[in-house]
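Apologies for my clumsy wording, but are you able to produce some protein sequence, whichever is easiest, and the tokens describing how it folds?
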Amino acid sequence: MGNYDLYFRPIRLRRWVKDGGRQKAEFKKGERVMKTCWDHNNCKVKEECPAHPRFGRDCFAVPRTLCRGEIQGEFQEKIAECRKCSFYLEVMGLAS
């Protein structure tokens, strides 16, 4: 089992909703509706990001994402920074 497998936690797409004339993904875990990384971080380049549209909850496991508008590296290169991210902490249940 690689590191990717340890951190990848699939969460099913709940539905697409209209948000100001644009479509937006909503994900569901249990009964809570959860935000995607691009909604959490008010991302301006989400359409260009490899995590969009299917991996908005698991962006930390996707190589070369566009976090903060900058290309991130492979999993091993970026996970240390991901672990400091408020979105990552929320997804992993570590946010206080």
